Automatic annotation (TrEMBL):
This is Lysine--tRNA ligase. The gene is lysS. Gene3D superfamilies: Bira Bifunctional Protein, Domain 2, Nucleic acid-binding proteins. It comes from the Bacteria. Binds 3 Mg(2+) ions per subunit. Its main location: cytoplasm. Belongs to the class-II aminoacyl-tRNA synthetase family. Its cofactor is Mg(2+). It is an enzyme of class 6 (ligase). Mg(2+) 1 binds at residues 407, 414. Mg(2+) 2 binds at residue 414. GO terms for cellular component: cytosol.
Length: 562
């Protein structure tokens, strides 16, 4: 492992601490009885406290020093005085340990008394301190100059997401997003629990990936010697529970879809699904409005939430617009009675990329997504989807070509999807078989046939309404974040590129080759000035690293930088 100069120095300090008999990673409980926030809120001059936190700054002035400790609730100033900490002749705890062997980023415990400085700062006078964890890597802390300008902020998105632990330390405001996320999920739970609905858990590993149209992740169970899928939705299991006699069940589920990644999609995401017996999609729209109004107030203190350039009003009621009417409004095409070929032609005229695997449902979905969705900034229910788009949805009671389904659009994106659930087992089987035909045409997102779910329906499922709400997108809205990665502690990332360490001879070769991209092999060898043995060893290793290759041409052998 290649260590930086600072990392080497910190490891040397670690050794010195151990030589002094100080365990830099003690196991014993540390009796914390206060936090930075509680000290400030309930400040009492002279009060004894025991706190702990990360050393984030310090100003050493001889035998005295002011420093800042950061804990889970903020920062507090602490004052180190050599004679307070070391009242006897032995001053090593201050002179050696504090001044020389501690570093910014170390976690320490402090016993002390509260006092107020001359400039009015609430501070802890340190009577004793204990090293609780030695930090071996320097924190990427921002620097502020005399004019107040901030430099070297830890704001590179890839580094922040990959090293979220560092992000949370040096950018404390990031915690606010995740605190708010917990408030949002707690608010939803409170709303449903008050109605008597039961929070449940259903399988993540499933023999059939049902409940949505999406490409699944496939794995293998060795003991059973069967393929299993990470769930793409929990819908079909929750409906089994409605068959079993529960009137209302909900689940905060981790779902997985083996599809693209962008600012609003992560392959692992959280969805809340709710199913309530003896209800329909009209009731679900009314209930969803009330839920989101409550969530907005609990999370932000208001029904109005700022999202980018928009102020979004979550106060009920929300407009209800049929999807075919929305397409007509925003494209000028009335697609209500069109067949597959006509829809494909319309999509092409609108500049939408289509292919032969797309059926009626997929084509309408593409047209709406490309040409209509972004217009709906304020919460809007898009309702009454064509049957081909909704294989798990009850047929519309007034139009047999449609279904009783809605999607809730907010800020130009889908936030929720809900149905009057299909409970006719014969109709459901036919819909699944239609999906199977799409799969045979090459649609790798078409649904599988879940025979056990069909068997459950044959025992009888009461009229039911269900909804799925994307929790990650809801948190994005409530925290004014445009990227899903900002609301996930650990978003999926590409593999981290390993830093390639080259020998001096390899550096000579690449320094000559990189600026020109390629060079006759003999010329490169002459310019490098390396002996035959060093040349052979270096070029072989560079080729193994994948950054150097030799190409044979009519003009001879050429070295190429990759």
């Amino acid at each position: 492992m290649q260590l930086s100069e600072q990392e080497i120095v910190r490891r040397e300090k670690l050794t010195k601490l151990r030589e002094m008999g100080i365990n830099p990673y003690p196991a014993a409980l540390y009796p914390v009885d206060a936090t930075s926030k509680s000290i400030k809120n309930d400040f009492e001059e002279g009060k004894k406290v025991v706190i702990s936190g990360r050393l984030m700054s310090r100003r050493i002035q001889g035998k005295a020093s002011f420093a800042e400790l950061q804990d889970s609730e903020g920062r507090i100033q602490v004052y180190f005085n050599r004679d307070e900490i070391c009242p006897g002749d032995d001053k090593d705890l201050y002179n050696e340990v504090y001044k020389k062997l501690l570093d910014i980023g170390d976690i320490i415990g402090v016993e002390g008394e509260l006092f107020t400085t001359q400039v009015g700062e609430k501070t802890v006078m340190v009577k004793n301190f204990t090293l609780l964890s030695k930090s071996l890597r320097p924190l990427p802390l921002p620097k502020v100059d005399a004019e107040g300008k901030v430099y070297d902020e830890f704001n590179d998105a890839e580094l922040r997401y990959r090293q979220r632990y560092v992000d949370l330390i040096v950018n404390p405001h990031v915690k606010d997003t995740f605190i708010k996320r917990t408030k949002i999920t707690s608010s939803i739970r409170e709303f449903y629990n008050q109605k008597g609905y039961l929070e449940v858990e259903t399988p993540i590993l499933q023999p059939i990936p049902g409940g949505a149209a999406a490409r699944p992740f496939l794995t293998h169970h060795n003991a059973l010697n069967i393929p299993l899928y990470l769930r793409i939705a929990n819908e079909l299991y929750l409906k089994r529970l409605i068959v079993g006699g529960f009137d209302g069940v909900y689940e905060f589920a981790k779902d997985f879809r083996n599809e693209g990644m962008d600012r609003t999609h992560n392959p692992e995401f959280t969805v809340m699904e709710l199913y309530v017996a003896y209800k329909d999609y009209n009731w679900m729209m009314d209930t969803t409005e009330k839920l989101l109004e409550k969530v907005a107030i609990d999370a932000t203190g208001s029904t109005k939430v700022t999202v980018g350039e928009h102020e979004i009003e979550f106060k009920a009621p929300y407009p209800r617009v049929p999807i075919l009417e929305a397409i007509k409004i925003h494209t000028g095409y009335d697609v209500a009675d069109m067949e597959e070929d006509q829809l494909r032609e319309v999509a092409q005229k609108l500049g939408i990329e289509v292919n032969e695997t797309m059926g009626v449902g997929k084509l309408i979905d593409e047209i709406f997504g490309e040409k209509c969705e972004h217009h709906y900034i304020q919460p809007t229910f898009i309702i009454d989807y064509p049957k081909e788009m909704s294989p798990l949805t009850k047929e519309h009671r007034e139009n047999p070509r449609l279904t009783e389904r809605f999607e809730l659009m907010v800020n130009g994106k889908e936030l929720a999807n809900a149905y009057s659930e299909l409970n006719d087992p014969i109709d459901q089987r036919e819909r699944f078989e239609d999906q199977l035909k799409l799969s045979e045409k090459g649609d790798d997102e078409a649904m599988f046939i879940d025979q056990d779910f069909l068997r459950a329906l044959e025992y009888g499922m009461p009229p039911t309404s269900g909804i799925g709400i994307g929790i990650d997108r809801l948190v994005m809205l409530m925290t004014n974040n445009s990227s899903i990665q900002e609301v996930l502690f650990f978003p999926q990332m590409r593999p981290e590129k390993k830093k390639v360490e080259l020998s001096e001879e390899e550096k000579i070769i690449m320094d000559l080759l990189k600026p020109v991209g390629q060079m006759p092999l003999g010329e490169l060898k002459d310019k490098s000035g390396l002996s035959g043995k060093k040349w052979d060893k270096s070029t072989k290793n560079l080729a193994k690293l994948g950054i150097f290759e030799v190409s044979k041409t009519d003009d001879g052998l050429f070295a190429i930088a990759k």
